């Protein structure tokens, strides 16, 4: 699972990967947003 954050570390959205660990999202400005992998507990 990935989360997209704005510069002040506020979460914008969480995205789940598919079976091949791929996630697709709209183009982001990397100066404004960052993408982080997060651990999900089962």
- The residue fraction in helices comes out at under 10%
Strand order of the largest sheet: 2-1-3
Radius of gyration computed on alpha carbons: 11 Å
**Tally of separate domains:** 1
Explain what the structure shows.
The chain is flat. The chain has a three-stranded antiparallel beta sheet, with no helix packed on it. The chain has 42 residues and is mainly beta. It has strands at residues 2-6, 11-15, 33-37. This is Peptidase.
Give me a quick take on this structure.
The protein has 42 residues and is mostly beta strands.
Detail the topology: elements first, then pairings.
Blueprint: E1 2-6, E2 11-15, E3 33-37
Antiparallel strand pairs: 1-2, 1-3
Label this structure with key terms.
flat, three-stranded antiparallel sheet, 42 residues, single chain, 3 strands, mainly beta
């Amino acid at each position: 699972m990935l989360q997209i954050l704005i510069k002040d570390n506020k979460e914008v959205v969480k995205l789940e990967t598919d079976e091949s660990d791929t996630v697709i999202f709209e183009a982001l400005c990397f100066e404004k947003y960052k993408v982080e992998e997060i651990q999900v507990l089962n």
